[in-house]
Amino acid sequence: MNDTATNTTATTTTENDGPAPRALTDQELSQLLRQQQFGVLASVRSTGHPHLSTVLYDWSPEERVLRISSTADRLKVRQLRRDPHASLHVSGPDVWSFAVAEGSAEIVDPADTAGPGEQPLPDRRVVILIRVSRLYGTALDIPAQD
């Protein structure tokens, strides 16, 4: 039997008629951070793996600083004391937009700077300050359907 096989490779392509994601400007990123209150904070575990925590934050665009309140005994605080690399991911008003703020974290314990007679914050509260060195994110501008 002398069959000759034809070697054909099927190439499948898909056509995407929609718009491509666009990078958000610094102003749009800052606005998105101001409009939202909750984000996902990423810190680095001792194994090198990311640790994610949903947090309530405050964004100061003038200072380019994020402030997050936590308690001193939380895992994220212990990790950021060891390795200050941090990122905060914030979702936009739709599933297609987001902002990420990256920077170096500092743990500020008000008990360390309390004056004589001043009471520390309850529950050993600390403030995580992230000095943002990089902002990035995208949006997908989808035309309205008629």
Radius of gyration, in angstroms, nearest whole number: 23 Å
Q: Give helix % range.
A: 10-25%
Instruction: Tell me the series of helices and strands, N- to C-terminal.
Output: EHEEEHEEHE
How many β-strand stretches?
7
Strand content: 35-45%
Report on the architecture of this protein.
The protein is α+β, with helices and mostly antiparallel strands and 146 residues long. It has three helices and seven strands, in the order βαβββαββαβ. It has a six-stranded antiparallel barrel. The chain is elongated, with a radius of gyration of 23 Å. Mean pLDDT is 87; it is low at 4-9.
Topology:
Elements: E1 22-23, H1 26-35, E2 38-44, E3 50-60, E4 65-71, H2 75-82, E5 85-91, E6 98-108, H3 110-113, E7 125-139
Characteristics:
146 residues; 7 strands; six-stranded antiparallel β-barrel
TL;DR?
With 146 residues, this protein is of the alpha+beta class.
